[in-house]
Amino acid sequence: MRTIGHWLTSPWRRSVAAALAGALPVLAFPAPSLWWFAYVALVPWILLARSAPTARRAAYDGWWGGFGFLVAVHHWLLPSLHVFIFLIAVLLGALWAPWGMLIRRFLGGAPSPGRGAAALLVLPSAWLAVELVRSWQGLGGPWGMLGSSQWQVGPALRLASVGGVWLLSFLVVAVNVALAVLVSVRESRVPAVASLVATAAATSAAWAWAPHPDADGRVRIAVVQPGVVDGQDSGDKRFDREEQLTRRLAGQDVDLVVWGESSVGFDLGDRPDLARRVAALSRDTGADVLVNVDARRSDRPGIYKSSVLVGPDGPTGQRYDKMRLVPFGEYIPARSLLGWATSVGKAAGEDRRRGTEQVVMNVGHGLRIGPLVCFETAFPDMSRHLTEDGADLLLGQTSTSSFQHSWAPEQHASLAALRAAETGRPMVHATLTGVSAVYGPGGQRLGPWLGTDESTARVYDVPLAHGVTPYVRYGDWPVHGALLVLAALCGAEGVRALRLRRNGPEPLVPRARTVHESPARPGR
User: Fold this and answer.
1) How far is CA 511 from CA 516, 517, 520, 523, in A?
2) I need a surface site. Which of 49, 176, 447, 463 has the fewest CB within 10 A?
């Protein structure tokens, strides 16, 4: 331990250690998907910040740890963003600087049991505040929220139906804090054990109390995944492949056929021949076809990504234009300042246009669907609002074709499990090149994933449920609770600072007596 402590006396070595510690949680996400590792992954980072000699150094530990975390969970963007991924990680990593300071404030030195107990509430709340800020679409969106690493854990999915992915993040951080206290702060081990017991009790209570979505119907959804199509005229070739795969669905009694993001590279108003071909597929299969058009619109200026429903007579008029665009990938923030990014990586040469509202579509058979495009499936509020608006089935149309040989396809596919569990609605995650996946209303996986090496069309029997989960009813209440905790902390610190200013600092040595004072009655 002394050797490690001496090695960490160098500021740069300590910063490197913080970055490596911050990167550890990435192993809990797909593709490694070591979900259990999330409950211990933050412990080294916490112990490092706890040992910081000053509050400033603890802030740097938090900052560099945040840098490592963001680079790790977004490493698959490196071929597209190049140096920008490090710039973004440096800027957003600063969000964890206050978290590092709070670790030292509550766990540094030899904290009392009271401080240790407070840390179990304050530190997870501060983490949630960081996730809230970076979840803003302009800062990249909520990719890599810690709670989303629990997408395949049954009890965690039940908790998601109560408080969303926010509640899972809070509990995962609380367990990490408790374990860090157990291994490093003898005086606070009792509240740490109590926290672990409380977490287990809360999970058990949610399992027993949270409404379980009961299936009250069933639909057959076909996912068409054409696979990688490269080379000249790839748009036309992809369409031909999707058409070929969709024809195989004839006679399989499907209720809806879903194509992935950018499955049609031409506006159907400009290419009526393509609209007629999709309409013919709808007649052959007996189901509407939901395509995704990535093209310059014929009826208004600009390029849109749009979910378009096509029936046996052509486009039905039901359309959803993507609202939350991927920074740099689909638009460049402050293009006048950062437009040079197009010469460094694969940034958008022209900004896509945004839609203005979410849409619930009626596809017949009494089925109402709520489409989402690409990384919109990472936003829990969007799927919740679609559910409130009456969607029976959530649909994500996406493409991770630029990141085929990374961890991105698996991680993106896993997010749909959380959205299904939060809302109590099944969700279909349909991609161009994999991974495509389908989940039931409790977040359970239905059928096999379609991997990145598959070009196929597959039909899934999807159960429907129409109950209202606590998360849909009450929204992001864990975030509101965390903000109240932090507001109370700021208030308490303000009162403490005011008292110190009024009374002055406590004397370091007893006040000296004068010759006129009696030892028994000082100061009279």
Assistant:
1) 14, 12, 14, 10
2) 447
pTM for the full predicted model: 0.90
> Please, what sign has the CA dihedral across residues 296, 302, 306, 310?
negative
Q: Determine how β-strand 368-373 pairs with β-strand 393-398.
A: parallel
Residue whose entry in the numeric block shows the structure tokens 């809360």: 202
3-state helix, strand, coil in the chain (%, to 5): 50, 15, 35
Judge whether residue 502 has pLDDT over 90.
Answer: no
Cβ within 8 Å of residue 232, ≥6 positions away: none
- Non-local CB neighbours of 51 within 8 Å, separated by 6+ positions: 5, 8, 108
Contact 430, 216 (CB under 8 A): no
Tell me the two tokens of residue 174: 């609380």
Q: Which amino acid is at 436?
A: S
Residue 59 has pLDDT above 50, yes or no: yes
- Token pair recorded at residue 163: 């408080």
CA distances from 89 to 75, 449, 459 (A): 10, 31, 40
What is the pairing mode between strands 427-431 and 393-398? parallel
To the nearest whole number, what is the mean pLDDT of the chain?
Answer: 89
Distance from C-alpha of 83 to C-alpha of 407, rounded to nearest angstrom? 20
* Helices and strands in the chain: count of H runs, count of E runs: 17, 11
Mean pLDDT in residue range 233-252: 93
136: helix, coil or strand?
coil
Least confident of 207-211, 271-275, 452-456: 207-211
In the Cβ-directed half-sphere of 401, how many Cα atoms lie within 13 Å? 21
Whether the CB-CB separation of 123 and 106 falls below 8 Å is answered with: yes
- pLDDT tens track for 310-354: 999 999 999 999 999 887 777 777 666 666 566 566 666 677 889
**Segment (H or E) for 316:** strand 314-321
Q: Which amino acid is at 507?
A: P
As beta bridge partners, residue 371 has 395
Q: How many CA atoms lie within 13 A of 333 on its CB side?
A: 10
Compare 302 and 401 and report the one with higher pLDDT: 302
Q: For 88, what's the count of Cα atoms within 13 Å in the CB-facing half-sphere?
A: 24
Amino acid at 275: A
| Amino acid at site 267 | D
Which residues 6+ apart lie within 8 Å of 297 measured at CB?
Answer: 267, 269, 303, 304, 306
> What is the spatial distance between Cα 366 and Cα 426, in angstroms, rounded to a whole number?
15
How far is 461 from 470, CA to CA, in rounded Å?
A: 26
Euclidean distance between the first and the last CA atom of the chain, given in angstroms as a whole number:
53
Q: At 226, phi and psi to the nearest 5?
A: -75, -20
User: pLDDT tens for residues 503-514?
Assistant: 765 554 455 455
368, β-bridge pairs:
362
